[in-house]
Design goal:
This protein has a single domain, classed as D-tyrosyl-tRNA(Tyr) deacylase (D-tyrosyl-trna(Tyr) Deacylase, Chain: A), CATH 3.50.80.10. 21% of the residues lie in helices and 38% in strands. The chain contains two helices and eight strands. The strands form two sheets. Strands 1, 2, 3, 6, 7 and 8 form a six-stranded mixed beta sheet that branches. Strands 4-5 form a two-stranded antiparallel sheet.
Amino acid sequence: MRAVVQRVTRGSIKVGAETVGEIGKGLVVFVGVARDDTEKDAEYLVGKIGSLRVFDDSEGRMNLSVTDAGGELLVVSQFTLYGDVRRGLRPSWIEAAAPEIAEPLYEFFVTRAKACIGGVATGRFRSMMQVELVNDGPVTILVDSRKTF
């Protein structure tokens, strides 16, 4: 699994005219699922993202996690994180999981995040979404369950 994590002052997701997810201060997490990912990959990502020390402490140092800072998560499914453009300009999606594999793992990720981190809002799987966010910093971190050392 792969995630792009952005520290934000606020974020929201619309599907059509309906706002389906919204947070204040926290992390917007774009999650992609690879075709051979398992629940172990989702557990790793939740643990890593929940523990990232990317929020300022009282001395202005990035020393607090999202829970320490009282923040929330906005989780967005995004298969395009597995787009491969090494051969040409049109992305290949061969490494991305098919929806019937990706959706249960995405839902598992969300369930674990809610249990471990708390306030979690989401988009809508397999929907065209409009994501709005105000990146704070900017701070953007890439997390990949396959790159653990």
